[in-house]
Design goal:
Length: 195
């Protein structure tokens, strides 16, 4: 069965972006030891134009072949005229307002995210499924998230968009890996704990 992984950057206090959705405050922490390590391990998580810019345009997908995005995650690229940000992946955007025919390479759906993920997980072939963001979608998909990979940056935001927007229902995860970088960035990997 395919696995759903929420791989996302966050502050120490658990925010993935500023209240307005900006996440440029993470940029100073993208150091010489950090970016190449992430590019090597997760090349498919870079948008297609960025892959070309850093010289990995032809790198094979290692972990994921499908990316899931909420409208808020998809909008910044759309505002820049990028309708297919991850052309090297199967792209699914959850939105009730976007035109489903916006780009033939992007599946825009208003279907229940849980139903979509459960169907994707049953597909026999393929790599993993990457939940790119955001908080609303992550909250809805929390029951199906198998793995969390948190790129934790050594900064406290105070407020902003949280990792999840969901009701109070504690779910246990087990830390399976951690890696620390020059500026104090930590990449933490968690697997859903056995129930």
């Amino acid at each position: 069965m395919r696995k759903l992984t929420y791989l996302i950057g966050a502050t120490i206090d658990g925010y993935i972006a500023a209240p307005d959705g900006d996440f440029d405050f993470f940029t100073p922490f993208v150091t010489e030891d950090y970016a190449p390590a992430l590019f090597a391990q997760y090349p498919e998580t870079l948008p297609t134009p960025a892959r070309a810019a850093v010289g990995i345009a032809e790198a094979p997908n290692k972990r994921f072949d499908t990316v899931l995005m909420g409208r808020g995650t998809y909008d910044p690229g759309l505002a820049a005229g990028l309708t297919s940000p991850y052309g090297h992946l199967r792209q699914i955007v959850f939105s009730r307002t976007l035109d489903p025919a916006l780009d033939p390479e992007v599946e825009i759906t208003s279907e229940d995210p849980l139903a979509v993920v459960r169907r994707l997980k049953q597909e026999e072939d393929g790599l993993g499924i990457w939940l790119c963001g955001g908080a609303e979608l992550a909250g809805q998909l929390l029951p199906e998230i198998d793995e969390l990979i948190i790129k934790q940056y050594p900064v406290v935001a105070g407020e902003g968009i949280p990792l999840f927007r969901a009701g109070f229902e504690p779910r246990a995860f087990t830390l399976t890996d951690s890696r620390t970088f020059q500026r104090g960035n930590v990449v933490l990997t968690y697997e859903r704990a056995a129930s």
